[in-house]
Structures are given as C-alpha cells and as structure tokens.
Amino acid sequence: MARRTMSVLPQWSSRIFSVELDGAPFYFSTQEKHRGEEVPRVFRKIPNYGRCYSLLVCSSDRIRRAKFYGELKDKLLRDLPPECHLSPMSSFLPNVKDSLLKGYFLNDNSESSSPTERLLRDLIQRDPVLVCSYLRGEGGQLWTQHLWSHADSQTMEMSKDYYVVPSEAPEYHPSTLNIINSDVFYSFEEAYEVLKKCGDIIPEAKSVLELLASRAEARSKPDFPVIVIEGLDATGKTTLTESLRDTLGACLLPSPPQCLSPMRARFDREPPLIRRAFYALSNYITAEQIVQEGMKTPVIVDRFWHSTAAYAIATAVSGAVCNLPAEDSEIYRWPSDLLQPSLVVLLTLDPVERKKRLRNRGQGKTEEEQELEDNQLFRLKVEKAYQRIRGPACVTVDASPSTDQVLQEVLLLIRGKCHL
After folding, report:
1. Among 43, 170, 274, 376, which residue has the fewest nearby CB atoms (within 10 Å)?
2. Please, which residues have CB within 8 angstroms of residue 119's CB and are 6 or more apart in sequence?
3. Do 176 and 317 touch, CB atoms closer than 8 A?
4. What share of the chain is helix, strand, coil (3-state, %, to 5)?
5. Is the distance from CB of 101 to CB of 56 less than 8 angstroms?
6. Claim: this prediction has a pTM higher than 0.85
C-alpha cells in the first residue's frame, strides 16, 4: 500500500465515517467488539439484496490525491454496473486537522458482485485507494466492515474485520478539518508550492508562477486608499465600481487580473486544491497591481480575497448553513502576507431580483455562479462566509435601490473610512 494508506491504519478504529445521502450526512464508526449497538442509519437504507463498499483515496502526494479523487468518480460511473449507486463519503479523526480522507460509498444492487469486486480489486493494485466491504449479519441486525489489504487482493481475503456502530455527529463538520491551505490558502508560499508541483502536468501553472516574481510588493501598503467591492454576480458591482472610478478619479482593477484571463478556463477544470491555489495566487498578483497604482491614485478593486475564500468555504462544506465553521474560526482570518484593503463593501440583493438581473444579462456563468442560481442553500452559505471574514470585515450595503442611491451610500462610507 501507499505510505498514506499505511499511516492511517494504526488509528483506523478511532476514525469516524460520513456518508452523504440526499445532502444529509450519516455517521458511523467501527470497533473490534460489538456491545449491542443499533445498526447505523446509513445501513438501514440498504435493501436485503444490496452489497456495500467504501473507497477512500489515500496518498502522501496531495496533488496526486486531488487529481485521482476527481478522476475516480468518472471511472466508477463509467465502469460500474448501472445498478450501483454512488454517494460522497469521508473518513476523519474528530477535531484533528488534515485527517480527512475523501472517497465514495457504493451500494451495489446488481445480480452479481463479481464485476464490482473485480474493478475494486484492480483499483487497489494500481491506485492510492483503500477499499472496505460491508457484510450484513443474520437478520440484518449486525454489520461488519472488512478492510481489504493490497497483499490479499488477488484472493479477496480481508486484512481485518470491524463491527460497524452508530456515531454522534462531530463537533465540527468534517470538511472543515482540511480547508486550511487546501480549499483556502493563507500564505503565498502554500499556494505557490501547489502550483509549482503542477508544472509538469499543467503547463499553464508555469505561466502563472512567472507573473509572481515581485511578490514582496503584495504586502506593501500604498499611499492612497484601496476600496474593494464584493458581492454575488448581478448585484451591481460593475456599475458601482465604474461609477466610483469616475467619481473619485481612481484606478479600477479586476480580480482575478486580466493577465490571468486566458488561463482561468484551464484551472476551473482542475480539482479544488489546484483551482483554489490558482485563485489564491491571483490575489497576490492583484495586490502587486494595487500597490503600483495606489502610489498615484485611489484604487477600486472588483472582488478580492473575500470572494476567493467565501466561495471555497461554501463549496467545501456540504449541507446546511450551520455546518459552516463557527464565526470565530481561524478559517475566516485574512492572510498575514496579503495587502489589507482600506474598506470592503459587500453588495447584497434580494434573490428574486438578482435572478431577474442575471436572466436579463444573458451571459455565460461559471459552474459556481450557476450553482448560486440553482441552489438557494449554496447562496446562503456564500453570503454567510462573506459576512464572517475578518481583517478587514465587509460592510454590507443593500443594492436594491437605484444605482445613484447605492453610489451615494458607498461614497459616504468611503469618505468616513478613507477620508477622501
């Protein structure tokens, strides 16, 4: 087995497992002796003829782990029998950072287990995957987890058996354990290291790194104020930022910067680790531009780090808004090596009005913006994450009045905060 796989085995019985069914997590754990516990809820939903398997992606190379996890779903959907149902799954040590392993829970309702088990056997021979099967005891009142070993994969023998028992929901949503410097990056070095390791497989990564030669400027403070305008699409950011530019005689900068536009489509296809590192580094390139322009004039920025972090957090944390990290979590802190704006304005808008504006625009949307339009829960999580980011925090402005009224309200904020 890969080193990552071997490293989790000594703590295996301490791990909690989470399976997402219809957007809700179902938790269970394992133990060597059964003490009369009930069957975990996830197994109560399995029909009598069903068979269950779990696959967890384990690798010491997190670039490989991220790439393989994304590719694994496509492979399973393509090669498994059509009667198989796939659900997102994770395994973690409660409250232990970076302990999360992601994978899939497989409910196989096909006539024969041979095609599925043949595929899983091939996977553990070649790829960084840890496979378990789950067997129902007599009467369905007892389930056992069988952890497959690489050495035994040819004979289908299992390395260890554990009883499956219910588990309480953890204090923190499991996905929050791995957010720091995986979904949200808090330093230039952490994001840079990810893209540096991608140079051989993603040629565009080298082009991004070449734009970062003068990154020391990213933490400098310019002479003039820096005002960031944040908000979901169709809340009026473009209209407001252009009006502020003209009214204040300021420089207007987009984030991500224009120099990265040709590369965005490429990185948007990558798994979250790589995609988030790209967008994190785009903030440092924008910061360099801010410093250069801010020595001459005020600077208006259309989105900045708040957007990068809010979308990443909302995407990483599945389920309800209450699953987001607590308001005082370190996940909402501002990177210590990134320029801090003088003021951050968050435009908010009634969801019905925002959808109406989006339809009128008729423009193509990113996958995440499409998710915002289709999924009210995701939108609420993005907005809540925006509001919790600190250092600096956002000042919320209602964008539903006329464009001139919104402009005047923001100008009052700027004059009060930035003395312009």
Report:
1. 376
2. 76, 79, 80
3. yes
4. 45, 20, 35
5. yes
6. yes
